[in-house]
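Late entry, zinc ion complex.
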Amino acid sequence: MVKAKIRKQVKQRANGRCEDCGRRILPNETITGHLNHVRDKNYTNPGNLVNRCLLCETEYHLKYSNDPQEIGLTKKHNDATILGHFKRLAEEEQTYLVDRYALLLEGVFKRLNLTDSFGII
Ligand SMILES: [Zn+2]
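Prediction complete; structure with ligand written out below:
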């Protein structure tokens, strides 16, 4: 968990924008994401944190869906994170992203032994 003070510092650095795509984002849409998820002393260092929109945060985790250990996560943890984000995207009706990643998502559901209980794909 990242302390509120550090999260605020990262948000100020980003100046209301997603640090990955540059899109202006509202504070309640902002996710403080990690570059590396290993729980060492660097974990909550602002240099390891990124102010992201939900789309970029989801894409970051999708990018590492086959090699999540590269960002310090287990497959199960990364898959669960992806599913959580997709549930939110589906609720926000951002279906183009769901369509774009439908195949990857099927793999995630399969690995977690889940059926598509969210009705996402
Ligand atoms: Zn973004």
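The longest strand covers residues 31-34. Will revisit in the morning.
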